[in-house]
Specification:
The structure holds 2 protein chains of 2 kinds.
Chain A (H helix, E strand, L loop, with lengths): L3 E4 L2 E4 L4 E8 L5 E7 L6 E7 L2 E5 L6 E7 L2 E7 L7 E8 L1 E2 L2 E2 L5 E2 L3 E5 L1
Parallel strand pairs in A: 2-13
Antiparallel strand pairs in A: 1-3, 3-8, 4-5, 4-9, 5-6, 7-8, 9-12, 9-13, 10-11
Chain B lengths: L3 E3 L4 E4 L4 E7 L4 E9 L6 E6 L3 E5 L2 E6 L4 E6 L8 E10 L3 E5 L3 E6 L1
Parallel strand pairs in B: 2-11
Antiparallel strand pairs in B: 1-3, 3-8, 4-5, 4-9, 6-7, 7-8, 9-10, 9-11
């Protein structure tokens, strides 16, 4: 069983809709990530949160808006998406020890498969 | 310049053979090196991580790191059909924040 839980597992939305993807972990990890993965491609980093602060934004369009309300939760707010944004969105977490990444191992959720019509 | 490069394959090996997967990376404060396995329709799962030059063995898997050559490899001994998956090389860089970047992945097929 994965210890990173993502909801919803599937989401279909129109280009004018506003929706959110949610991610939750209870492993005490203080680094959380959003990745986007299209078919037959590797995961592509979007955002990194370290200690609930946004530390990396990989030049992601503003129609994607991340939020980290607390150390266990990570959201990705979606607005005015395009059909090419259809993909699997993966949340991951990893542990810090003494301000440094521990092993750096990423623990992934099962992903939210997004279809934009 | 891509930061993490892999041969996308596919790599096909017979059951019981050794599968050899390779990866090169750009050296921008690279710190940690990982191999993830991803089955179709599933999320990636960690196989091995390695920090220091040399070999690291875990069961049928051996990771090798050569920082001077910026090269990481994964050997899978006694390959099984259940090993058929995409293997993703990943590198963690510290560029003012820690980020993990994946290579394109190598598709491995193990024929029974």
């Amino acid at each position: 069983d994965t210890e990173v839980t993502q909801t919803p597992k599937h989401l279909v939305m129109g280009m004018t809709n506003k929706k959110s993807l949610k991610c939750e972990q209870h492993m005490g990890h203080r680094a959380m990530y959003w990745y986007k993965q299209k078919a037959k491609k590797p995961p592509e980093l979007m955002f990194v949160y370290s200690y609930e602060k946004l530390s990396i934004n990989e030049s992601v369009p503003s129609r994607f808006s991340p939020e980290c309300p607390n150390s266990s939760l990570l959201n990705l707010h979606l607005h005015a998406l395009q059909p090419e944004d259809s993909a699997l969105y993966l949340c991951a977490s990893s542990q810090f020890v003494g301000g440094q990444l521990s092993t750096g191992e990423l623990f992934f959720g099962e992903g939210s498969r997004l279809t934009v019509l | 310049q891509k930061e993490v490069e892999q041969n996308s394959g596919p790599l096909s090996v017979p059951e019981g053979a050794i599968a050899s997967l390779n990866c090169t990376y750009s050296d921008r404060g690279s710190q940690s090196f990982f191999w993830y396995r991803q089955y179709s329709g599933k999320s990636p799962e960690l196989i091995m991580f390695i920090y220091s030059n040399g070999d690291k063995e875990d069961g049928r898997f051996t990771a090798q790191l050569n920082k001077a050559s910026q090269y990481v490899s994964l050997l899978i001994r006694d390959s099984q059909p259940s090993d058929s998956a995409t293997y993703l090389c990943a590198v963690t860089f510290n560029t003012g924040g820690f980020k993990t970047i994946f290579g394109a992945g190598t598709r491995l097929f193990v024929k029974a």
